[in-house]
Design brief:
CATH class: Alpha Beta
CATH topology: Rossmann fold
CATH superfamily: P-loop containing nucleotide triphosphate hydrolases
Radius of gyration: 20 Å
Strand content: 15-25%
Distance between the termini: 27 Å
Length: 320
Amino acid sequence: MTRDVLGAKDLNVVFRALQGRGEVRAVDGVTFGLQEREILALVGASGSGKTTLSRTLLGLEQPTSGSATAFGSALPRSGRPLRDFRRRTQLVMQDPSAALNPQHSVYESVAEGIRLHDLVRRATMRGEDVTEIELVSRALSHAGVRPPERFFLSYPHELSGGQRQRVLIAGALAVEPEIIIADEPVASLDASIRGEILALFLKLRDELGLSLLVVTHDLGLAWNIADRVAVMQEGRIVEIGPTEQVLLEPQHEYTRELFAALPSPQQRGALSDREQIDIPARDGAEGASLSGKSTSRAEELDDPTRRSGPESAGLDDTPL
């Protein structure tokens, strides 16, 4: 049986309203689990509570009541258990330009976590003869930044948006996590680059065995990469289940409203199609094909900025 690696039970997060006038229930009685080697999309409109829920699962917000769990235990609050949890559970933020230190080179950005968690020594204790440079190179390669040495001395302002996002992902991968929480991971990227990052997440799940919680407002993103979808409204998960079930046969009125809000009939119709889309490799990085349900997904929904439909091109599918 597949185990939950991250989850919540009857989780509530309540904030005081401005000037102490009442309360805001940001997370309201949420119960769910992220399974091992699963991509779960947490979908909802702005203000639905999905970001607060993800921050609580990371230990960045304290629950008012209920519990959050990781790897079968309550979230640790201090000491070595907390340090280990933060290594095993990594956050990939929406805007890499804001997340990356502009004064740090690509090498320094990726090496920071390796040094913080003393991973060279840990590798040596496992009998692995490895250097910091090799660990940085490995993380960049996993993120599709190849050849990694070419980017060591580059700074964020010298990179494209797609390259910055891959460097941010490499920084997360460098500490050997088991879970990645990605908060709107492609929202700040050009339409032509988004598919590459989605394809990368699929490869990381399949080839490194990662579990991913992807926080998004985009049903198209959820359709393309998620094994399951959880829909949030006003702090509650109103529907959760396999992606095809939730998005093709929504049971809750709010899910149907989200689907109906897609900007064009073509976007709504795309959910019923099963065509392959190849995600192009750019930015000195390698991508993967999105088709089917494993390392790829069904046809990508059109981006609202690309009314004519998704572009398609072949690419290298070299293993990580």
